[in-house]
Amino acid sequence: MEPANDQRQRELALFLKTRRARLSPEQVGLPGGGRRRTPGLRREEVALLAGVSADWYTWLEQARDIQASAQVLDSIAAALRLDATERRHLYLLALRQLPADPQPADEAVPRTLWRFLELQAPCPAIATDQRMDVVAWNRPACLIYGDYGAMPQRESNTVWRTFTSPYVRELLREGWEPHARHRLAQFRAGYARFAGDPWWLAMIEDLNRVSAEFREWWPTHDVLNGPEGTKRNYHPSAGLLVFEQAAFTVSNAPHLTVIVNMPSPESDTTSRIERLLNDSSPK
């Protein structure tokens, strides 16, 4: 076993032991009574609750190099009454990836995140979810990229908008193709966690139907993540806007990604956005 993998297995074993130790049989609907050498549930009780063999669960707590599926991890998480943060920790230790949870509801966008985006002005800033829908934004983003609050949900998806909006094509001009390929590669990477999900299948089918470029590029299976770097936008009234992009996930809402487009210091983009904001303010 590789040293790093060995350490990860030991961390997983210790984590499971501590979660097991904090539960009593009565808390999980099992009969109590009798003397116990150690506090908490026994290994065989966790195995019973999770629907796995006692030997297999024992091997897991002994830090043996065995594989656990997402379905089994969810069963163990339920048996040990793990909260959302603990369940994500379990997945990272066991599979080195986060769980592919169903799409969270819109109300999952924290109010503090809306406030954060507002404070980024004059930088246009948005937050996207796992489907790459724009779920939060600030005023500069709406003035440059479109009024997200007035868009139908499908239109606010960054992949759909990239491949179907004439405005986006004109905004990006010669930069449209690299931007579109980047967005598509991000979308493909995200799809790996939701392969077979009806929403994703419908979106892929519709994009194949309406976009020749999507039909051509989707079969290449390019995947990537991260910001795009320097972007040049040709706004119809503000003119050329040059941005450097930063992207990061939200610690208390890890299904959300914040994207901030910062005006390039070598351009007059900041002053152009400030004029745009001023001109659009109520008089």
Could you please describe the fold and organization of this structure?
The protein has 283 residues and is an alpha+beta fold. It has 2 domains: 3-95, 434 Repressor (Amino-terminal Domain); 106-280, Beta-Lactamase, CATH 3.30.450. 47% of the residues lie in helices and 13% in strands. The protein has helices spanning 3-21, 43-50, 54-61, 70-79, 84-95, 111-119, 139-145, 158-164, 166-172, 176-191, 198-210, 212-217, 269-280; strands spanning 125-128, 134-137, 230-235, 239-250, 253-263. A 5-stranded antiparallel beta sheet has the order 2-1-5-4-3, with helices on both faces. Helix 2 crosses helix 3, helix 4 crosses helix 5 (84-95) and helix 8 runs antiparallel to helix 10 (176-191). It is elongated, with a radius of gyration of 24 Å.
Nearest-integer average pLDDT: 90
CATH architecture of the largest domain: 2-Layer Sandwich
> What's the helix count?
13
Oligomer: single chain
The count of strands amounts to 5
Q: What is the CATH class name of the largest domain?
A: Alpha Beta
> What general form does the structure show?
elongated
**Major β-sheet strand ordering:** 2-1-5-4-3
The proportion of strand residues reads 5-15%
The arrangement of helices and strands along the chain is: HHHHHHEEHHHHHHEEEH
How many domains? The number is 2
Major beta sheet, specifics? Answer: 5 strands, antiparallel
CATH topology (fold) name of the largest domain: Beta-Lactamase
Work out the radius of gyration: 24 Å
The rounded distance between the terminal residues' Cα atoms is 68 Å
The helicity comes to 40-55%
Low-confidence blocks of residues: none
SS-based structural class?
alpha+beta
